[in-house]
Amino acid sequence: MSGAWAWLRRNALLIYSGVAVMYMLLPIFVIALFSFDQTSGGKLDYTWSGFTLDYWQNAFADPSVNDAMITSLQLAALATIVSTAIGTLMALALVRHRFRGRGVSNLLIILPMATPEIVIGAALLSMFLIYGLELGFTTLFIAHVMFSISFVVVVVRSRLIGFDRSLEEAAADLGAPPLTTFRKITLPLIAPGIVAAALLAFALSIDDFVISNFNSGTTETFPLYIFGVSLRGIPVQVNVLATMLFLVTVIGIGLVLWQQRRAERMASVRPDPEPAV
Amino acid sequence: MYYMGQMALRSGSLDTGGFTFTWQWSNFSDSLSGHEEQLVRSFLYAGSATLIALAIAYPLAYAIALRAGRWKLLLLFAVVAPFFTTYLIRTIAWKTILADQSPAVDVLKFLHLVPQDGRVLATGGAVIAGLTYNFLPFMILPIYASLERMDVRLIEAAKDLYASSTKAFLKVTLPITAPGIVAGVLLTFIPAVGDYVNALLLGGTGQAMVGNVIQSLYLQQRDYPEAAALSFLMMLAILVVVAIYLRLAGSGAFMGEEDEAR
Prior knowledge:
CATH topology of chain B: MetI-like fold
CATH architecture of the domain at 63-234 in chain A: Orthogonal Bundle
Structural class of chain B: mainly alpha
Distance between the termini of chain A: 64 Å
Largest interface: A-B, 69 and 66 residues
CATH architecture of chain B: Orthogonal Bundle
Oligomer: heterodimer
């Protein structure tokens, strides 16, 4: 008896962690589980009525779900490309150059991340209204680029801070023009940071509801669509697609991690650089 | 390039005049009257959710950082996994979990945490639970980062000097990880105040938060000036609360750590 008690005391923290992790994963499990729910009428009704594979076989049978998903993917892809490009350049400017307003710029980059989403959404809507822009895909695109940039800058900047600039100088000494140096030296070295930033931007964009809710007009992204139907009844296909998206993301992240680990192992094979004298 | 962000924030504070800019200060008082209840409720719910999240997050972060061994990566993955599903679907999943006939509610009733004829959905408790869940990773990750960086030998040193485990924790671990806690609290509290999705999906009519008011003023009633004024006031209230909090928690430690943590 006392042995069991001692064991419990020793492992209390780990048992607790297990429970807490289950709590974190519970909704995901529920989402996946209910994508197999044999519900009447093809809508989620919050009760379990039996196992079926129907909805997985007909995953793309609901055109409105597909349309919303396609809009979301297009928007996320575009916003990711643009915000990653702008954000990377901004990070370069902020780390490499001392210019007037640099401190203010740094602060303004952090600001959107420390603001409740609803305020950003409302502020953007106000701006679009003042300038008389028609709400739709364009305004969504502007909004998504705007809130992604901050995260891109922060991620890329942290990669740039540990950057060894003597490598660029070496390239220049060997007669490489600035653009070649950037392409052959700088870009490959900060690439992992850029990839991470792009993934983050994509994830943020595809998941965003609050800011999109304010600036979408009649355009429907995947989260907006779910919100729209959440009162009328959600097609089970939504859960199927959500589970697919989850699996794809997990596999994608796994691949990136695996790739990074392999790169690190390869890097460690190379001889150490000469210690500075 | 980033003027976009700048402009957005600027217009957030300047658009008080709405359609024509006329220095309508009365918008501010108008927006406040009648919505005090929701404003107070927002801070109450967000505050409770933050405290509960802290209570859940600290032991978990501690276990991941110092005790997990080879399970570390897996546990960290579990913490960020919710980010890989859509925010709305996650919240709707909670609606399923907390629905009236669900096993989870039966368990709560069995434990007498919920009265036999009571329900969980459409109560303040459900909204707080939703907020806690959705912002929990923001609490865990900064605390984990600060625990991970901590020099474990300090605890050993404290124990060598005859501190009990509890005392070593209170005098060494807790102060060292304070910046992580401060960051986590801010990252949880600020978005939670403005959130309206949880109140909308998990709460009933009596659980509206200030975010719900702003959303409906903007998107349904189209009273833009008043909505803008209210969101500006909410921002101001958050700033005041955060300023007081940082004052109490000691801002120096947080500001110094911030760059490293990111």
